[in-house]
Structure formats: structure tokens, C-alpha cells
Amino acid sequence: MSEVLKLEALVRTFRNEGDDLHILRGADLVLNAGEIVALVAPSGAGKSTLLHLAGLLERPDDGVVRIGGIDAGKLSDSERTRLRRDSIGFVYQAHHLLAEFTGLENVVLPQLIAGSPRAKAEARGRDLLRAFGLGPRETHLPGKLSGGERQRVAIARAMANAPKLLLADEPTGNLDVATADIVFDELLRMVRGEGVAALIATHNPDLAARLDRVVMLRDGKLVAG
Ligand SMILES: Nc1ncnc2c1ncn2[C@@H]1O[C@H](COP(=O)(O)OP(=O)(O)OP(=O)(O)O)[C@@H](O)[C@H]1O
């Protein structure tokens, strides 16, 4: 099976008021194509730190991040940006949609930035929003959508450039329990349908149990959950 993400002995230490916080102390992980893995850890253990490193938003103090076999540490900043844009989608706890653009435009823009022609980007955007039942709302501004609808648009945006890897940090953490449940299942359906590998951080053990595998961040290392 082809390897989408490989983390090798990742180390990340923060300096905080004179103390060293050893957040990652040799974290290893392999994610294969189509695999959906839950990342579970107590608050402050380093889930977001790990996702930022895996998503090439930050560099580790030591260790290697490979995306599709490519050692990201050997790339220039612009090459990392291109690899991130072409291969990785992000979903955060907050939707981070652009308020002055419609739902559809929010899904179209990353595709235009990646060089896709507008007609193709709009067709893909409409397909993704329709899959979430948002077709009739595609021209609404984010401020006119419910919290669950906004998060669905944010997921559609993350999938817009057909990434190989989706990284999600508490993707339904801001929603009420009932909506979170539904949106989480919709996210899984879309990720499975598109054959994308995903690493999804969640505090919720019920949600984690729906995924293919659980890894836990313990003492700065990843262990099977
Ligand atoms: N840039 C930074 N400088 C100093 N300390 C940091 C920095 N970024 C993160 N930390 C610290 O590292 C620890 C891990 O943070 P991180 O956000 O990765 O945790 P988390 O597991 O995602 O937490 P939560 O579930 O609450 O979001 C925290 O104690 C945090 O305060």
C-alpha cells in the first residue's frame, strides 16, 4: 500500500518562561493511502503541534516528515508551500472561511490559486457542496450559514484540490453534540469516497472509535490506542 505520510522520530521543544517543554520526543507514524486515523491526547499534549509539523506549516527540531515519500525537510520554503498546496488539506476547529466570499467561492479560490481553470474549479466546488447537501446555499456568505453548514464548507474547501492527505484538528469541536455527530459522519463519508488518507485529532473517544485506527500521543511519542 502506498505511503502518504511518514513521521520519523519527530522532536519539538518549546521554551516557555525559562523551561523547556518537550512536547514531541521522537514521534513516529505511517499513514497509508485511504487510511483514516484518530489522534487522541489530553489537552496540551501536542496534537496541534504534531499536525502543524505533518502539514508542513512548521519544521521539527529534529526528525523527518515525508509526504508521499518526499523528505519535506530537504525542500525550500517555496517547494514546501507547493507540496502543501497540492497534497494536503486542513480542517480546523474554527471554520476560517473568508467572510466576504460565498461558500462556493471559498471552495473555488484554493483551486484557482493552484492553477485550475475557473469552470473546472466551480464544477468541483459545486459537486463537493452538493455532497454535503449545501447546493441551495452555495451563494450564501458564511455569516448567513449555520455553524454546521460553515464547517461543511470548510471541509469541502479542504478537499477542493483533491489532496492525498487531510489533517483535521478537532473538526467538529465547535459544534453542538448532535450536529458534531452528523458532520463528523459526513466528513468520514467524503474522505472515504475520495480515498484520502486522514489524521483527525479529537478529544471524543466515540468519534475516534469510528476511524480505522487510533493513535495516542503519550509522553511525546505516538502509541497505538
Ligand atoms: N509556539 C509555542 N511556544 C511555546 N509553547 C508552545 C507553543 N506552541 C505550543 N506550545 C505549548 O505546547 C503544548 C502543546 O500545545 P498544542 O497546541 O500542540 O496542544 P494540543 O494537544 O493541541 O492541545 P489542545 O487539545 O488543548 O488544543 C502546550 O503546553 C502549549 O502551551
Please provide a brief summary of the model:
GO terms for molecular function: ATP binding. Helices cover about 35% and strands about 30% of the residues.
Any overview of this molecule?
The chain is α/β, with parallel strands linked by helices. It has a single domain (3-224), classed as 3-Layer(aba) Sandwich (Rossmann fold). The protein is built from seven helices and ten strands. It has helices at 47-54, 77-87, 103-113, 118-131, 147-159, 177-194, 205-208; strands spanning 3-16, 19-32, 36-40, 62-67, 70-71, 88-91, 165-169, 197-201, 213-218, 221-224. A six-stranded mixed sheet has the order 6-7-8-3-9-10. A four-stranded antiparallel sheet has the order 2-1-4-5, covered by helices on one side. Helix 3 (103-113) packs across helix 4 (118-131). The longest helix is centred in the last third of the chain and has 18 residues, at 177-194. The two termini are 22 Å apart. The model has no long low-confidence stretch (mean pLDDT 94). Keywords: ATP-binding, Nucleotide-binding, Transport. It comes from Acidiphilium iwatense. InterPro entries: AAA+_ATPase, ABC_transporter-like_ATP-bd, ABC_transporter-like_CS, ABC_transpr_LolD-like, MacB-like_ATP-bd, P-loop_NTPase. This is ABC transporter ATP-binding protein. GO terms for molecular function: ATP binding.
Number of helices, counting only DSSP H or I runs of 4 residues or more: 7
Q: Could you state the CATH homologous superfamily? A: P-loop containing nucleotide triphosphate hydrolases
Query: What is the global morphology?
Result: globular
Distance between the termini: 22 Å
Approximate strand percentage:
25-35%
What value does the average pLDDT take?
A: 94
Give the % helix: 25-40%
Q: How many beta-strand runs?
A: 10
Please indicate the count of domains: 1
Radius of gyration (CA) equals 17 Å
- Largest sheet data: 6 strands, mixed
N-to-C SSE series? EEEHEEHEHHHEHEHEE
Which hetero ligands occur in this complex? adenosine-5'-triphosphate
| CATH topology assignment | Rossmann fold
**Unreliable stretches covering 5 or more consecutive residues:** none
Helices and strands: which structural class?
Answer: alpha/beta
GO molecular function, one term: ATP binding
Domain ABC transporter: 5-225
Protein name: ABC transporter ATP-binding protein
Keywords: ATP-binding, Nucleotide-binding, Transport
